[in-house]
Design brief:
- The chain has 88 residues and is mainly alpha-helical.
- It has one domain.
- The longest helix has 18 residues.
- The chain is elongated.
- The N and C termini lie far apart (41 Å).
């Protein structure tokens, strides 16, 4: 499979990986938001997703854009805005 060399495709990939994380780790995400330790409690899972993302894109696509991190916010955090937390 060729590496992704298009920003739009990289964004779609990042969002797809973030969506999978959201689906398979729903309870842990909600708990992390409630306890205000989401990024600590999900660090290994997020890093696994980031590694997969980086393996599938050309390095020059995302050197400073942080597309994967943005996808985590867009897909995971925004979809959990209804969860009561001191974060918001």
């Amino acid at each position: 499979m060729p590496l992704i060399d298009n920003v739009e495709q990289a964004i779609r990939l990042a969002k797809a990986i973030a969506s999978d994380i959201a689906i398979y780790h729903e309870n842990k995400i909600v708990e992390g938001i409630i306890k205000d330790n989401l990024f600590e409690s999900m660090a290994a899972i997020f890093e696994e997703g980031r590694k997969l993302y980086k393996q599938r894109i050309k390095p020059e696509i995302d050197p400073n854009a942080n597309l994967f991190d943005r996808a985590l916010v867009d897909v995971i955090l925004k979809s959990k805005a209804h969860v009561r937390s001191k974060i918001w």
